[in-house]
Amino acid sequence: MLRQHIRNAAFNVSIHDISILRKINWATAADDRADCAKKTTSLNSCDNFIRTFYPFESGFVLCGTHGLHPTCAEFLYNAEGVQRTFAGNGLAPFAQDIKAPFVYAANFLYTANAPHYSSPEPLILRKDTLRAGTNDILRTDRGERQFEGAQFVGLIENGHEILSFFSEPPSESEGCGLRRVARVGRVCRSDPGGQGKHQNEWTSFVKARLDCYIEEKDQDTLYFNQLASICPSTRSFFGAFRSQLAGLGASAVCMYSRATISRQMGAVFNNSRISTCPRAIGTYEHIFIRSNPLIQKRMNAAPIFVHYGQDRFQFILVQEDVIDLFGRRNTVLFIATDQGRVFKVVQNEEQTTASHVATFQVVQLQPSSPIQSISLHSEQLPNQQLATSLLVLTNNKIIRLPSSTCAHIFSCSQCLSLGDPECAWINHGAECVVISQNLHRRQYLNQELRNCPEIPVTTERPIVQSKET
Fold it and tell me: Mostly located where (predicted)?
């Protein structure tokens, strides 16, 4: 099931046939709407834009902007309507245009959010969802050393840690000529907070620069410094970046090791050798880390994929361990762009770079309907067959596409020269098919280009037009 949150409502949607299973109407209360109208000239801001979701045993909680008064509401699976509401400061943003990522782990909700309307400064917050009130909330310290004009991209669980990915202006000491730089921040899930007046502050927060760049001899370094999206895999993080250089039209994907980030960020603490998640022990170390959260060590990477052109990367999705007929493991990336397209990019285990194998034209470019997110869904078919779909969410629709372009290819050479590990050619049937949906015909499948009956030719990557659902 897919949950879509929009203005004044939330939808529970069946992925199988993209049908609405349940619609929950939750608009801004009259008193909050009236108070909102006094603060803004845009009545659109007084609606309830739902931004946060987390479950509990018999239901779930939604948190929304609620007319500039962030509010959370409990709902039950077996009952209609709001059961109760409570203050959502820090759990949902104040305005609909603020990106406030969250992650829910072991009954704790972690958010990157501004807890007060009067202060736009975002904080990393942790709330125990089993406790009422806000006294238990843990947060980063307020101040420019923690975040300065930060724009958050995502929060991701990493073992004993929660990692935050964001961008902000560089510090004076970095002096790199870039308007913004990418960062990764880190806190420990088990952090108990500081002592005395610092009891509600993290003792484990540090941040590091996240670099993605091309460096060549006798040429200026090309930085992809604008972080657009981040996606985890089992062992790594994949980041989608853009260059700030006007007119260049360059985007890139860089890969970072989970273990390396964890080790290097934990190494700055005194108990780094004896703790599963090092943090400041004692007031002196806490105050020092609190005043100097930026570590000197940078997380550097060279791109595994670069694109030059009109499309600018917006979101990235990773599919691991897609195995071809030779038994090779492939990492498949789906990259959504600001032009309404999704690129399919493949890196096999023998390569250090990735190749562009297909393009999906998902939506015609409209300012009112850009791509908001992408996800994958796998459905078990009879005879142990598997069908994988790409789900694309916009402001007003959900679009479902096959994850491969095999069915749109009509020659053996084109089918196999693209390098899509999902596709194979059936010689006796003369068709390009999805391997996972044709395992019962495995003995007839071919992924070897030299075994094609026709002479291989150079072909363009297929562009698949979506059908709206």
Answer: membrane
Give yes or no for a contact between 357 and 363, defined as CB atoms under 8 angstroms apart. no
The segments of the chain whose pLDDT lies below 70 read 1-5, 143-144, 175-176, 246-247, 365-368, 454-469
Domain holding 98, by residue range, is: 1-139
In 3D space, the residue among 333, 359, 362, 316 whose CA is nearest the CA of residue 421 turns out to be: 333
Q: Does residue 322 contact residue 388 with C-beta atoms inside 8 Å?
A: no
Strand 355-361 relative to strand 463-465, pairing: parallel
Round to whole Å and give the CA distance between 143 and 121: 8
| Cβ neighbours, 10 Å, residue 410 | 10
Q: Within 232-362, where are the H helices?
A: 258-266, 283-291
Q: Rg of the Cα trace of the chain?
A: 24
Strand locations in 159-262 (E)? 161-168, 181-188, 206-214, 222-223, 226-232, 236-242, 250-257
Tally of CB atoms within 10 A around 57: 5
**Could you give the dihedral angle defined by the CA atoms of residues 50, 52, 54 and 60, in that order, rounded to the nearest 10 degrees?**
-20
Tens-digit pLDDT profile for residues 430-456: 899 999 999 888 899 999 999 887 655
Structure tokens at 274: 């004896």
Please give the C-alpha separations between residue 450 and each of 134, 309, 410, 439, 456, in angstroms, as whole numbers.
66, 33, 17, 22, 8
**What is the DSSP annotation of 65-110?**
-TTTS-EEEEEETTS-S--EEEE-BTTB-SSTTS---EEEETTEEE
Q: Please compute, for residue 52, the number of CA atoms within 13 A of its CA located in the half-sphere on the CB side.
A: 34
pLDDT tens digits, residue range 248-293?
789 999 999 999 999 999 999 999 988 899 999 999 999 999 999 9
Residue 130 pairs in a beta bridge with none
Q: Does residue 347 lie within any of the structural domains? A: no
Q: How many structural domains are present in the chain?
A: 1
Determine the pLDDT at residue 240.
Answer: 98
In a domain? residue 104? yes
Residue 373 within a domain? no
pLDDT at 1: 46
In a domain, 456, yes or no: no
Q: What is the pLDDT of residue 304?
A: 97
